[in-house]
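Data availability (excerpt). The following record was deposited with the supplementary files.
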Amino acid sequence: MSEKVTEKAILLCDKGAKPSQLKVMSQDFCLIENKRIATEGDIAPELNIPNFGVCSLTQNTCCPAPAKWQKTASKDTINNFKVLTQDSSCQCSLGGKISIQFKGYTESHQVS
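Predicted structure:
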């Protein structure tokens, strides 16, 4: 089963030069290891998803343009937003795919 994702999860873009760290702002009361659980509401460029260095498509500094998160939890929600899982990803409108490399914590917390 897939596991929940928290703030400080490590994100990768397949067109970026470096990883970035997810910032969770969609809620502030559901925690794992004192870190906020991420939801599909955490998708704002730079606010939630920092840049990935230099974009290999534009050859300039990355300006994330994420679309909707895919492969979110089917049942688990917080504030009517589906919870992100370690399998979640989203497309960047410039052509990259943003995925989760590390869920942000060490315990096991599976989604339903």
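Summary of structural features: Residues 47 and 98 are 15 Å apart (CA to CA).
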